[in-house]
Amino acid sequence: MSASTGMSQDLASYNFAYLDEQTKRMIRRAILKAIAIPGYQVPFASREMPMPYGWGTGGVQVTASIIGPDDTLKVIDQGADDTTNAVSIRAFFQKVANVAVTTRTRDASIIQTRHRIPEEKLTEGQVLVYQVPIPEPLRFLEPRETETRKMHALEEYGLMHVKLYEDIARHGHIATTYAYPVLVAGRYVMDPSPTPKFDNPKMDMSEALQLFGAGREKRIYAIPPHTKVVSLDFEDHPFEIQHFDEPCALCAAEGVYLDEVILDDRGGRMFVCSDTDHCEERRAAGHRGRLSAEEAYTGREDAIRETAR
Amino acid sequence: MYVAVKGGEAAIANAHKMLADRRRGDRSLPAITVEQLVEQLGLAVDRVMAEASLYAPALAALAVKQARGDMIEAIFLLRAYRTTLPRFGASRPLETGEMVAERRVSATYKDLPGGQVLGPTFDYTHRLLDPELAADAPVDPAPAREHEGEPLTRVSDILAHEDLIERAFTGDPDQMPEEPSGDLTREPMEFPMPRDLRLQALARGDEGFLLALGYSTQRGYGRTHPFAGEIRIGEVEVEMDVPELGFAVALGRIRVTECQMVNQFAGSAKLAPQFTRGYGLVFGQSERKAMAMALVDRSLRAGELGEDRVAPAQDEEFVISHADNVQATGFVEHLKLPHYVDFQAELDLVRRLRAEFEAARAGKDDATAREAAE
Question: Can you say whether residue A72 is alpha, beta or left, with left for phi > 0 and alpha for psi between -120 and 50 degrees?
Fold first, then answer.
């Protein structure tokens, strides 16, 4: 074969949603098993994807296995639809599956996410697919897979509680702010992926199906709809989520997760919604924050100075 | 007003255009052809094939070109292509004893049937930069070797006659590994791992990582007393059984490097003293990789041979979990993806802890001041 001819045709032909049907079947089986045993990490024969490990290959394989031509896909990274890796993954599915895409949480049948759960309550029939870097919640307490699998099998989670207790003894608080461990359906301790603990309550009794894919680590796990998900805590140190002192500077939303945006080199900063779709919808509905467009043109300098104070 | 950063799509497209431009470099120079890479940077092509687990010189060369010479990126490209290929069966085990060896050396015997064959090696070259090479001076054809093309007896077979070395498979015959051997790229990885999967993981593992681990065993971290029993490089036939035909069909020839390390073993209550082996087999020509692989393979057999597992190179989970450079590079480099949501959560915590720290210190200062006043 000459190197330049013949190759291009072979390289171009991919199946719908990239994975071959045998692979999809294998992944769907793993997903079904994961749904049947909520929070249990199911090993699966993760494929090498055309994007790097650690960049969402697990989530992409899960999405590719469940997506159909009628689905509408939303992809977010850090809560935003326009971050580069979200753009890249969305473009991948447009290319290999030619599906409809959206940025609106409500319109999506499948939402693939990295590090956030949308602010808007998910509903029945929606699927949230998480990209997971390290699926094992016990990994940083015990690096060996052979050991941690045993600990899960025996429901031996004392080590995790000791870790949380040591945090309290040392800092006065549980010092885990993201990837905060949860107990699923009263049985398995699970890593919710590196979402801020702010999002943990949204996993509890969710109407949507939640699927977790870890490509490099070759594990899939799931939280079926209407499943109890409890963040680990102690009676005298109950689980708490982050609170922000000010509302979103663009849409004035309260009780949502905010990003801190640096405005200048003099300590000027503003807080805006991490969920860009939620923020845009609120603004479209007429909500205005301190720094939203209309006020900003006139009062920008003042506003920034005020924030800096 | 803060305008959320939009246009990620355009930025990505522009970045890729810039990449293509830099890849091509100075347009007044001719572009490198894939054939040139296969012929003149053959060892780079070999490494890409080995660590991508795909024997396809032209595609590997294309990957090297597309990756601008970044080996791990090239391996990644070829692997991502390999995943999409259908599997239509497994070959019969390679018969490396039938190899038409271009090189075969043994460190355990001064001479042996077929002799020591140096072949195309960097060994004994003086590492002096060659200005003539820069000027593209003509190169003489290689001299032909006597008895070229005849199979050479394997050193391990010589030792096996006296039972001085373990057989290829020493265990209970009922435990004989099943054929075809497992495939890490199609099955979930679980520990502990059978040796066939372990060898596959090592064969596609990162050359540098295995080199460092192999080296560590020589420096005392899990010493295995190795001798390079034999290293051979050459072409072997790949055959496949076709059930419809009832016999094996030759698919073609591939070049491989094989290393058999001969390691000391004192014996145990069950086994008489005997030499043991570490095995390395790599696509193409890569002695360094094959030797390192053989050292690490032998180290990872510590459990099976009843040796204490004390060093990193003897720790299967540690070695196999971290040997894959495509996985490693992906995860290390994913740190450049945005993490600002989690960072925000950490910022919040650090600010709170600092505030509490300052409050506590102020309280203590007050108390000290009060004591001093009294």
Answer: beta
Is A251 a known active-site residue?
Answer: yes
CB-based contact, A186 to chain B, within 8 Å: no
Q: How close A173 comes to chain B (CA, Å)? A: 9
A177 and chain B: CB distance < 8 Å anywhere?
yes
Q: B331 CA to chain A: closest CA distance, Å?
A: 5
Question: What mean pLDDT value characterizes chain A?
Answer: 90
The predicted-structure confidence for B66-80, as pLDDT tens digits, reads as follows: 999 999 999 999 999
Contact A95, A15 (CB under 8 A): no
DSSP of A35-82 = HHSTT--EE--PPP-SS-TTSSHHHHHHHHHH--TT-EEEEEETTBSS
Q: Are the Cβ atoms of B341 and A196 closer than 8 angstroms?
A: yes
Which residues in chain B have their CB less than 8 angstroms from residue A11's CB? 81
Question: What is the per-residue pLDDT across B195-238, written as a single tens digit (0 to 9) for each?
Answer: 999 999 999 999 999 999 999 999 999 988 899 999 999 999 99
Task: Look at residue B176 and tell me whether its pLDDT is greater than 90.
Answer: no
Give yes or no for a contact between A239 and A200, defined as CB atoms under 8 angstroms apart.
yes
Structure-block tokens of residue A296: 């900003």
The helix (H) or strand (E) run that includes residue A100 is strand A100-101
Active site residue A299: no
Residues 6+ apart with CB under 8 A from A129: A59, A62, A63, A66, A110, A111, A112, A113, A211, A212, A213
Output the CA angle A25-A103-A13, nearest 5 degrees. 40
- Enumerate the residues of chain A whose CB falls inside 8 A of the CB of residue B347: 260
What's this model's pTM, rounded to 2 decimal places?
Answer: 0.88
CB neighbours of B305 closer than 8 A, spacing ≥ 6? Answer: B265, B268, B276
Cα separation, A62 vs B55, in Å, equals 29
Task: Tell whether ipTM is more than 0.85.
Answer: no
- DSSP at B145: P
Of A167, A150, A177, A289, give the one whose Cα is nearest residue A243.
A177
Please report residues of A whose CB lies closer than 8 A to that of B334. Answer: 52-55, 133
Tell how far CA B259 is from the center of its chain: 14
CB contact under 8 A, B349 and A49: no
Contact between A7 and B59 using a beta-carbon 8 Å cutoff: yes
Specify the DSSP class assigned to residue A148: H
Q: Are A82 and A276 in contact (CB under 8 A)?
A: yes
- Burial class of residue B7, CB neighbours in 10 A (0-12, 13-18, 19+): exposed
- Rounded to a whole number, what is the distance in Å from the CA of B21 to chain A's nearest CA? 20
Q: Hey, is the C-beta of A300 within 8 angstroms of any chain B C-beta? A: yes
- Under-50 pLDDT residues of chain A: 1-10, 12, 295-309
Handedness of CA B151, B152, B153, B155 (dihedral sign): negative
| Chain B residues touching A52 at Cβ < 8 A | 76, 326, 329-330, 333-334
Q: Where are the beta strands (DSSP E) in chain B?
A: 100-105, 226-242, 247-263, 276-283
Taking each helix axis as running N to C, give the angle between helix B71-83 and helix B325-333, from 0 to 180 degrees, rounded to the nearest 10.
110
